[in-house]
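Go through the following before class.
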Amino acid sequence: MRVVRPRIHSAFTVVTAAALLAVAFVFVQPASARESAADLTRQGLSGTANTAGLGTTATPLPVIVGTIIYAALSLTGIIFVILIIYGGFMWMQARGNQEDVAKAKKIIESAIIGVVIIGLAFAITSFVINRITEAQGATPAAAPAAGG
């Protein structure tokens, strides 16, 4: 029994030393290698951005804010459309039960009102963001295309 423990201990020591040596070779690089890797990464990212048509010009703050608001309004609109579908499904499953039909109608009516409000908010936001960006002399933010 005593013979086995020193062998396990020495094997553990060898494995630990090998792992530490491997980590040192992998993560510890000369400064020139780190700089060249960073340059290659920057060049790759810039090339990808240019290919995608993003360029390196700064995007005005109103355009960024407008994009965030468009995304939030779109997500909220999707939620209301899902509620309309849910209300229709509830109505189909009501099987003539007037309480369930009334509940489904209430959900559908509320969701339609929500969709209308979101549509109006989208139009107002688009108008305001476009006016702000035009006043700053920047290109107005285009509203995302419907369905894509």
Observations:
- The first helix runs from residue 4 to 27.
- Residues 61-135 form one domain.
- The chain has two domains: 4-51, 61-135.
- The radius of gyration is 30 Å.
